[in-house]
């Protein structure tokens, strides 16, 4: 059947050549005689192609539906009649090829051939043309020039596709074709005009749709690229689009962006004396004066929030407006306030929350912990006792807590030693809400030895018992209400994009420095670009989370300090439903092989952030450290490499999982589960959104159906049956503790796997750091192969603040770690 198909579609000019080809007859091996070139193979060649094709399908696709058809389509690179199929955008998925069309006299037909050595029809065409047919390389074929009607060269087809799509207004479709021409054929005649046509017509189409910003960008790019192209129309377009865009920016109160755009356009088009520029300058000055006057009135009325907003708007409209900077300083003196830009809004407040950046950040502003991490030491984290100091005996079986309350501010200085001992005991009692399994397994006895000393006897040597005591300290510890803040700030109101934190009454009564912020306001920014722009123009004073590319750009700003956090975050996908296929380890492997994690990470990092220290794809659920010598990487096996991107293997493993499910259902006489769509949840921030959209697109290419589920602001895990997988950014800063918090039955993954359970128990029974490391490496190995969670990458984030804010600190784990020391410089 394959033999007949190939023979029927072979062009006449290729089939009828003096070639002798015999297959097996009477037990004799086939003989093949050719002259200097090969022709389309007949019986033996077809049989070989069919055999090789089937082998390829079996090895790469395991007879997965659709694989055989695509392989057959791949070798149909010639035909005796008709025209080649119109591929459209699918043309971009092909390797470059030229099209040879044969004359009707020679039998007609066409062939896709590897790019010919000449890129235009030669003026002299005698003799024979040799070529390789796509899919049949490296065999060479031949045809007389008299049998060739024409040749469509690859780049000419790209040009025609581009031109046709521009003429039809399909600029999205034209763009990839034009990009390839610019990249691979930059010297092609006519390319300059083709690119100019694309920019000009696309700009006016976007302007008609109301996309003024995009239209202006295209017109400016066109003017810079080809200044002589329809110059008058382009300049008029820039002027008109500028006026409309400015009106829109003013209505949206994007004053700083409007002012920056105005300054740039005035400089770039000074020679053209654009009428819109001078008119807009006068309007900006008038509006800036109005905003300044409104700020002065608000200051007199002691409406400090409104006063600051109007003063900043005035400066954004006219940076050199008279009295502008002094007005901002006067408002700050009257009511010190810090505005913090955040990408994830906080709705829960927990300083040690593993899976929520926002909860950790805002929780640290409200609460203290009994033991707080301040960094990483050669042997685990640096945990400091809030109420004094601690000491671990040489045999690691006695932890002593020494209270020293004299240097603490109220209410922390009111702690009773009996109450502290009770809290430590409750943490080991199953009937108490404070119960914590690892602490109960570790502690054997609690004794008060004097007015300021508690001795904690451990069941066995413990390398880092302090990490088990990161419990929140709230107002109930000092006779107040449960959940009452114990830091200097309390939650005010949550309104729109703003969450306000105000000084507590106790902090106000003890206030001695007038430059300490009375209020810290978190501003939820829709994306990183918006947040960076707000910081630049002074709308916000601090930005809590910067990605490497944004950090690199902001470091060039002399008014802003950028500092990396010392500990990375680990990003992963957490199973969170009873989806039968996600419970299958082969299917989870298919998901991993179906993601190009390296490219996704590079896309998130951007050009400026590429190669940032510590940002890398992971092979397991633990951090790899910022470099191979980083002590934080003590749980990570550097010899285990991340699973590569293998889409064909992903499809194969998916089919294996389906087959296994069907076989199991058949044995149990049940209906096999249907492979339903995968619901992928992610937090409501731009980076998570982009990462998950890209992951979903790549999974769809392997034949999966994927639905994205965006969680409400402040939520990091979905409700039951809301999603099947969840994208999570975790703070795994102490693997000896966090291994169970991620992989255990009560952890994020809620994993009941017996092998993992045994590994976790052996880890908690480790007597020294050598055993700890080896057992964590074992867990890394198991997790790499069993995939209870799907590791993605680790990211090193930064924070940034304007230099008039003092006391932020540099080596801080959490943004608000030193918030009680923040001071505004007037």
UniProtKB/TrEMBL annotation:
UniProt region (Disordered), positions on chain: 1-29
A single MF term (Gene Ontology): peptide transmembrane transporter activity
Coiled coil: none
Database matches in InterPro entries: SBP_5, SBP_5_dom
Biological process annotations from GO: peptide transport
Solute-binding protein family domain residues: 522-716
Signal peptide: none
Biased composition (Basic residues): 1-17
Protein name: Bacterial extracellular solute-binding protein, family 5 Middle
Organism of provenance: Stieleria bergensis
């Amino acid at each position: 059947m394959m033999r007949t198909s190939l023979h029927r579609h072979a062009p006449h000019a290729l089939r009828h050549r003096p070639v002798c080809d015999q297959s097996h007859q009477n037990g004799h091996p086939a003989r093949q005689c050719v002259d200097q070139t090969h022709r389309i193979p007949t019986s033996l060649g077809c049989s070989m192609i069919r055999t090789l094709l089937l082998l390829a399908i079996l090895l790469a696709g395991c007879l997965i539906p659709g694989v055989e058809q695509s392989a057959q389509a791949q070798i149909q690179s010639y035909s005796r009649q008709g025209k080649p199929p119109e591929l459209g955008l699918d043309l971009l998925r092909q390797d470059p090829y030229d099209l040879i069309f044969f004359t009707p006299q020679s039998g007609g037909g066409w062939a896709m051939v590897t790019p010919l050595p000449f890129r235009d029809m030669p003026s002299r065409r005698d003799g024979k043309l040799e070529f390789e047919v796509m899919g049949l390389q490296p065999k060479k074929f031949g045809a007389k020039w008299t049998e060739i009607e024409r040749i469509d060269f690859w780049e000419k087809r790209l040009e025609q596709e581009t031109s046709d799509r521009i003429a039809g207004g399909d600029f999205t479709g034209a763009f990839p074709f034009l990009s390839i021409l610019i990249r691979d054929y930059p010297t092609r005649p006519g390319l300059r005009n083709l690119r100019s046509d694309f920019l000009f017509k696309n700009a006016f189409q976007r302007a008609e749709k109301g996309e003024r910003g995009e239209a202006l960008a295209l017109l400016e790019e066109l003017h810079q690229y080809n200044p002589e192209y329809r110059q008058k129309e382009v300049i008029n377009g820039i002027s008109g689009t500028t006026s409309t865009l400015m009106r829109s920016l003013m209505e949206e109160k994007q004053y700083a962006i409007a002012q920056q755009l105005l300054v740039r356009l005035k400089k770039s088009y000074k020679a053209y004396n654009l009428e819109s520029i001078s008119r807009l300058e006068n309007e900006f000055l008038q509006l800036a004066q109005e905003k300044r006057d409104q700020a002065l009135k608000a200051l007199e009325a002691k409406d400090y929030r409104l006063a600051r907003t109007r003063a900043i708007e005035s400066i954004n409209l006219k940076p050199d407006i008279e009295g502008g900077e002094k007005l901002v300083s006067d408002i700050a003196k009257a009511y010190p306030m810090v505005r913090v830009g955040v990408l994830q809004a906080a709705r829960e407040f927990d300083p040690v929350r593993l899976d929520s950046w926002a909860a950790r950040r805002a929780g640290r502003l409200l609460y203290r912990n009994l033991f707080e991490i301040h960094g990483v030491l050669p042997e685990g984290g640096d945990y400091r006792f809030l109420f004094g100091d601690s000491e671990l005996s040489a045999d690691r079986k006695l932890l002593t807590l020494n209270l020293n309350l004299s240097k603490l501010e109220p209410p922390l200085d009111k702690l009773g030693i009996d109450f502290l001992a009770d809290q430590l005991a409750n943490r080991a009692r199953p009937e108490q809400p404070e119960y914590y399994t690892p602490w109960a397994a570790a502690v054997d006895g609690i004794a008060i030895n004097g007015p300021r000393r508690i001795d904690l006897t451990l069941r066995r040597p413990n390398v880092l018992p302090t990490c088990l005591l990161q419990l929140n300290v709230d107002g109930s510890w000092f006779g107040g209400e449960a959940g009452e803040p114990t830091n200097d700030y309390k939650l005010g109101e949550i309104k729109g994009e703003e969450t306000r934190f105000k000084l507590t009454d106790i902090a106000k009564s003890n206030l001695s420095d007038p430059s300490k912020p009375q209020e810290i306001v978190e501003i939820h920014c829709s994306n990183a670009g918006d947040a960076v722009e707000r910081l630049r123009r002074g709308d916000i004073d601090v930005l809590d989370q910067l990605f490497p590319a944004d950090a690199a750009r902001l470091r060039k700003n002399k008014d802003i300090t950028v500092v990396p956090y010392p500990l990375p975050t680990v990003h992963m996908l957490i199973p969170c439903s009873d989806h039968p296929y996600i419970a299958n380890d082969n299917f989870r492997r298919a998901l991993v092989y179906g993601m190009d994690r390296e490219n996704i990470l590079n896309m998130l990092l951007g050009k400026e952030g590429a190669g940032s220290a510590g940002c890398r794809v992971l092979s397991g659920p633990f951090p790899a450290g910022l470099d191979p010598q980083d002590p934080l990487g003590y749980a990570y096996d550097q010899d285990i490499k991340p699973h590569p991107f293998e889409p064909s293997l992903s499809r194969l493993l998916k089919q294996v999982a389906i087959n296994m499910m069907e076989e199991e259902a058949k044995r149990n006489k049940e209906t096999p589960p249907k492979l339903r769509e995968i619901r992928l949840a992610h937090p409501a921030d731009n980076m998570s959104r982009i990462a998950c959209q890209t992951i979903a697109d790549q999974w769809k290419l392997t034949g999966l159906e994927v639905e994205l589920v965006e969680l409400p602001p402040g939520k990091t895990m979905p409700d039951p049956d809301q999603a099947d997988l969840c994208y999570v950014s975790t703070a795994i800063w102490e693997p000896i503790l966090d291994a169970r918090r991620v992989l255990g039955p009560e952890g994020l993954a809620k994993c009941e796997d017996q092998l993992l359970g045994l590994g976790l128990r052996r880890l908690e029974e480790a007597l020294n750091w050598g055993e700890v490391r080896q057992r964590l490496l074992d867990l890394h190995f198991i997790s790499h192969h069993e995939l209870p969670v799907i590791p993605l990458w680790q990211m090193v984030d930064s924070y940034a603040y304007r230099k008039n804010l003092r006391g932020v600190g540099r080596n801080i784990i959490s943004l608000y770690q030193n918030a009680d020391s923040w001071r505004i410089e007037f």
